[in-house]
Design a protein that fits this description.
The structure is a single chain. The chain is mostly beta strands. It has a single domain, classed as Nucleic acid-binding proteins (OB fold (Dihydrolipoamide Acetyltransferase, E2P), Beta Barrel), CATH 2.40.50.140. Helix content is 0%, strand content 51%. The protein is built from no helices and five strands. Strands 1-2-3-5-4 form a five-stranded mixed barrel.
Amino acid sequence: MNHLVERKQRKVLVGSVASRSGDKSIKVVFFYKRPHSLYRKEIKRKTVLHVHDADNVCNVGDKVEIMSTRPLSHMKRWRVVRVLEKIQA
């Protein structure tokens, strides 16, 4: 029996920081398009994710790459992998 079990790939998304909601926490907005069930026109949708920012490096407007992780708090199931684009303030 092999004791070295490989983990599955975790989900990775790219989104923009919508708000800083407390210490080491941010909200990331992920936009996507889905076709309407009857008319097939593409409809814009968004998902707001609560993300763990361990180093407090993200600001509102930054483009970040996030990865799914174990539950870190009541709402946080994602963490920041890296900041792709910093907003000029």
